[in-house]
Amino acid sequence: MIETVVFDLDGILVDSEQVWDQVREQLVLERGGRWHDRAQRDMMGMSSDEWSRYMHEELGLKEPPEEISAEVVRRLMAIYRERCRCSQARARRSSAWQHAGRSGSLPPPTDR
To answer: Residue ranges per domain, the chain?
Structure first.
């Protein structure tokens, strides 16, 4: 059961901009587009409609902007789902470690 949802739309809690950049760059390179050094800076602060159109028109992706945006979001969700799963597993291990009466450093991560 989900207990809490946090919306961090300005990146204060989680610096997600780097992940977005990596996903978009990887997509452009995989699909035969033309990534350049200004692409990340150019897309900074753009809406999904804007950056997906930019990727189509300026970076040369053949897919329509709606498909580009959907694919980027799909990849981001997969990355965040994996990161959350790992974080939850570490939290469970930490809790079990503490309940077993152990103190000091946490057990080593094994869920990578």
So the answer is: 17-78
